[in-house]
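Target protein
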Amino acid sequence: MTTSSRPNTKVARVIGKYDLDGLGDDLEDEWTGASGERTSLRDLADEFNQSVLQAALRSAGETVAETDVESAYRTLTDDDVSRADEMRKRRELERSGLDVDDVLNDFVTHQAIHTYLTDYRGAELPDRSEGLLDRKIQTLERLQGRTTAVTESTIETLVSGDYLTDREYQVFLDVRVVCSNCGDDYVASDLLRNGGCDCEV
C-alpha cells in the first residue's frame, strides 16, 4: 500500500508532528505479539501518549527521565488524581515551556490506535488457532512437571523434618484419560497427539 492511498489518521499525524519515527513499527509489533506477548490497545495508547509527552518536553529543551514522564502523564490523565495536583503539574510543565493543552490534544485513544494499526498500516492479529494443540500439550506437560517438582520438594522437606522416614523416594505423575465408549485409557498428552480415541462408536 502506498502512503498516498492510506487513510489520514490522527496517530499518523501526531507521529509526523513529533518526529516519532519507528514508533509505528513498535506499536504494530507489540499489538501483534511479533516480539513476544501481545500488548493491549489501551496500554499501547498510554505508551504512545507518553512518547508524545516526552517528545514535547524534549522539544522544549527539557531532559526528563522516563519514570518522570510516566508520573506526569498519570497526573494529567488519571481520574483519581486531584484537581489541585493536576493544576500544579500543568503549571510546572508550562514553566518548562510546554503548551500543555496542545500536547493533551495530541493524545489518542485506544480506538485511534486500532484504526491506525488496521486501516493505516493494514496490521492483522495472528490466527491464535494455529498451534493450539501444541500449546495445550505444552501447558499440560508444564503443569505435570511442576506438580512433580512440588511433590519432590515437599517430600524432601518432610524427610528433613523427620515427618517421613528417610528413604529413597521416586515421584511418578501419570495423568490418564479413559474413553467411556471402549474403556481404553491413554496418557493425556498421547490422547491429544493422537486426535482422540480411534475406537468404533
Remarks:
- The chain is about 60% helix and 5% strand.
- The longest helix spans residues 132-160.
- The mean pLDDT is 88.
- The beta strands are 176-178, 185-187.
